């Protein structure tokens, strides 16, 4: 069984609840049916913590902390770059130092057949890239430079954008195979970095249809509208919109917001607003089962939105912007209800009382997603592309 080593920024909080952790846990768990997989993840705590977690006999994760001296050094250098951007830039800079993560990579690298990069931010650790005969894969979540250029606000962080561009360009060119989450992302990579589309294959985000708790039919009560997301700038923007626009204009609807994205707004009190903070997987499944409607008012983003997949797979009627359903070819009023910033509240009020129509739309959306986006099928397709790449490389010597 071939051995794959994966460089990863954010560790898995098992079981994963939101964000990219859902993707790489479920995708690599399924891919470990074909390969022996080691996930090497960087923790952002300032000490030498290290932990190994075995998810299956062929899938494990090493979570490696940042030594205090390097943590202090990086924080001093990046004192005006905070939040989401800071953690990403830290990874780029830390790769230049002899950290514990660097040591683990060099040790695990020796016995690995394939190296997968989840993003360009850890490319500096892979000093052998372009200098050995081991296969490299870029399994992208987003077109990272394009996304950073869109959402990074901090001026010091934006000063690193040219570097992020060069790192991703290098990774795309030196990788033997690139996976993108949507056709739009494939085309974006090819156009920006001037590479052949044939090198870029599809590996969309997915779902586990069997995990959802059966929705209980309830007597008529106040409508529950649900949003969930990690503490991530586009999600923060969505929560701000829900609080300032939707909650104030849809007073007969209760808005429930879960996940790290709700934490910055905990001091806000409104009678039809519940900010639930972070939730575990069991709580998340219960919230999905009790929601009458899911909303996804996203205005910025890249890749395929995991919330959209989960909402639809769970059979919840979805109201979303075009950005929220990007890359999925969903049809308005067939799979979901389309709404944008200027008419989102109006759409909610108009369609929320049309229960039979929403039920029909949700069933259509559920079938479409479950038929096309299961993690098992996506992993199988990835394995076929990887083996095809290996065979081609072997034939050309």
TrEMBL record:
Lineage: superkingdom: Bacteria
Stored CDD domains: GT4_PimA-like
Listed SUPFAM superfamilies: UDP-Glycosyltransferase/glycogen phosphorylase
InterPro entries: Glyco_trans_4-like_N
Keywords annotated in UniProt: Transferase
Keyword set includes Transferase: yes
Domain Glycosyltransferase subfamily 4-like N-terminal: 111-210
Annotated protein name in UniProt: Glycosyltransferase family 4 protein
């Amino acid at each position: 069984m071939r051995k794959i080593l994966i460089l990863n920024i954010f560790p898995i909080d098992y079981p994963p609840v939101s964000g990219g952790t859902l993707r790489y846990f479920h995708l690599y768990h399924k891919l470990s049916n074909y390969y022996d997989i080691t996930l090497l993840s960087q923790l952002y705590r300032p000490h030498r913590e290290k932990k190994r977690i075995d998810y299956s006999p062929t899938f494990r994760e090493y979570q490696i902390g940042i030594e205090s001296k390097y943590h202090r050094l990086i924080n001093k250098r990046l004192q005006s770059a905070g939040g989401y951007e800071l953690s990403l830039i830290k990874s780029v800079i830390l790769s230049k130092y002899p950290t514990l993560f660097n040591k683990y990579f060099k040790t695990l690298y020796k016995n690995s057949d394939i190296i997968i990069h989840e993003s360009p931010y850890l490319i500096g650790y892979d000093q052998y890239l372009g200098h050995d005969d081991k296969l490299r894969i870029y399994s992208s979540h987003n077109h990272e430079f394009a996304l950073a250029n869109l959402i990074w606000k901090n001026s010091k962080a934006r000063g690193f954008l040219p570097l992020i561009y060069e790192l991703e360009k290098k990774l795309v060119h030196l990788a033997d195979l690139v996976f993108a989450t949507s056709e739009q992302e494939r085309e974006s990579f090819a156009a920006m970095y001037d590479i052949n589309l044939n090198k870029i294959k599809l590996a969309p985000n997915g779902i586990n249809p069997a995990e959802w708790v059966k929705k209980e039919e309830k007597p008529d009560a106040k409508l529950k509208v649900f949003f969930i997301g990690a503490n991530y700038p586009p999600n923060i923007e969505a929560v701000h919109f829900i609080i300032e626009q939707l909650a104030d204009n849809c007073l007969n609807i209760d808005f429930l917001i879960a996940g790290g994205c709700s934490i910055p707004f905990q001091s806000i009190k409104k009678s039809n607003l519940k900010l639930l903070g972070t939730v575990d997987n069991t709580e998340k499944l219960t919230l999905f089962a009790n929601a009458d409607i899911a909303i996804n008012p996203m205005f910025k983003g890249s890749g395929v939105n995991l919330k959209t997949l989960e909402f639809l797979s769970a059979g919840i009627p979805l109201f979303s912007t075009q950005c929220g359903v990007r890359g999925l070819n969903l049809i308005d009023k067939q799979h979901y209800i389309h709404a944008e910033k200027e008419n989102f509240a109006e759409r909610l009020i108009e369609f929320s009382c049309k229960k039979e129509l929403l039920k029909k739309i949700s069933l259509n959306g559920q079938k479409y997603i479950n038929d096309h986006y299961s993690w098992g099928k996506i992993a199988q397709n990835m394995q076929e592309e990887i083996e095809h790449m290996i065979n081609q490389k072997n034939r050309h010597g």
